[in-house]
Amino acid sequence: MYRGRMERDLKRWVDLGLLPQSSASAILAEYDSRESTFSVGRVLLALAALLLSASLLLLVAANWEALPRLARVAGVVLLIWLFHVLAAYFLGRGAKAVGAALLILGTMSFGAGVALVGQMYHLSGDAADAMLLWFAGACLSAAAFASAAVTTIAACLAWAFLITLYEGGDPVPAIESYFWLVPVLAVIVLTLVRYTDAGRARHLAYLLCVAWLGALYVDNPEIWLAIAFFAAGFVAFLLASLPRSPLYRLASEAGSAPPFYSFAVAVMGLVALQSEAGGAWAETAIGVGLLALALVGIGLAGARNGTVRYLAYAVFAAEILYLAFETLGSILGTSGFFLIAGVVVALVAWLVIRVERRLGRVGEASQ
Amino acid sequence: MSGVLPVARWRNPFVAALVVAALQTAVLGYMIESRASILRNGKDVLLRSAPIDPRDLLRGEYVILTYDISRISPDIVTGGLPEGAAKAELFVRLKQQPDSFWGPVEASFSPLAQTTDSIVIRSLPFSYYPSPGAPPPALYPNFGIERYYVPEGEGRVLETARSAHALSVNVRVDTDGRAQIRQVSIDGAQVYEEPLY
Fold first, then answer.
1. C-alpha closest to that of B90 among B70, B63, B116
2. Is the ipTM of this complex over 0.90?
3. How does pLDDT run across A35-46, given as a tens digit for each residue?
4. A175 to chain B: which residues are within 8 Å by CB?
5. pLDDT tens across B142-163, in order?
6. What value, to the nearest 5°, has the Cα angle with vertex A108 and ends A107 and A114?
7. CB proximity under 8 Å: A 309-348 to B
């Protein structure tokens, strides 16, 4: 892990006399004191909470007649209160990991309650509503306790909401108002991520947006939509990665994700456009556009943002291979294709090495 | 990252627990009461039904029920069909037939007036697409009463009634047209009765 690598590096720098031992110890101590530091114990605790929640949900699903309904409802409500009050107690004493696990249990108990009522009254056709309600309950808890763990649960529930929409057959965005709620849920999750410092959960929200855009395109494979994806993604990418942009500060606080996902949407738009394009010329032109986009991505954000850089390399390599296969593949046959592929990969490797070396030099110069 | 905002620090976790637990309890209570009120105040309607197949899901085992009113002939639709694709609700007027089952006599995409000898039941919103063919095809609305949750392992009890086609379901319908299952019978003999709570 990162801590191990850092410890090795620090030791090396201390041995080389670049860094006094006291600074190295202080750096490690600071790192260990951070809340978001990955800890196996914390993860296992959260996992235990999820397993317990699953047993609770399955207990509801078993629908035991032995216990009268009202007793079951009372039991679930009691659990909701118990878990939240216990979480408050442990959080008050500073036991963050136990508190987070108890909050997860509390939110899952609320979900069990929603499922139980649905079962009691034989509700049907309301799965999306139930999921939305559960999401709302999770958001409430995440906001009230500023809990990163519950924010992650909320992000998963937002995903579950999108999946539920597709369970009852393909929703048609034009008339399905719930479909348009998905990006709203993503924004809510992103707000919570910022507020609760939930870090990695933000990727769930960004991926939800990307999946939602993909679903929108699958339903409307129109050229204008592909162009809109490209344009919006590219503009968002520029806003997130140009230091002059008014949103640059906000975006860079959120790490490498905003430029990466906006770049990914721009790529998605061009790939969609390429799949729609008729004729070899149009396809080649868009292919050149994709190559140019990859280079722009490397040029603008590559130095600071490794994720964008690697996505751009991948796009560049894939697109060159695709173009080579489309234009020459039919003439050359399989063996010729591998020849071309070998040459292309060597070319890309040369390019990557050049870019990486150049970026390294720029990095040194700016320090 | 700007880090945790300062508000999170002074927040008393017990207040948070109280607010969250109370609101979540209130939501569950509201859900329960909104369904129980249909059972308490709704009017009785007896529907002929048939089970389709038992399923297993998060909420447990349930039987999918289909009703005579699950297929609405376009002949009885009054007030016209929606012109474009839309999220629509269908209002269906039910009247008691000589065999004591209730059947559809009129349907409309806009609310129907209540009368003394009929009951109006309202479908869940569904996606409606106009079809160019004439006459328009039948409508297949759902009314939120298409599932019946049974204790684990009992799904087959109702399924055996499939061949006999002798399943009848007593539902209660409130003035809004929302329906709630009250009683399930096979060959006139009651198998399940739903308590208020």
1. B70
2. no
3. 655 677 888 888
4. 85-87, 127
5. 999 998 888 777 766 766 665 5
6. 95
7. none
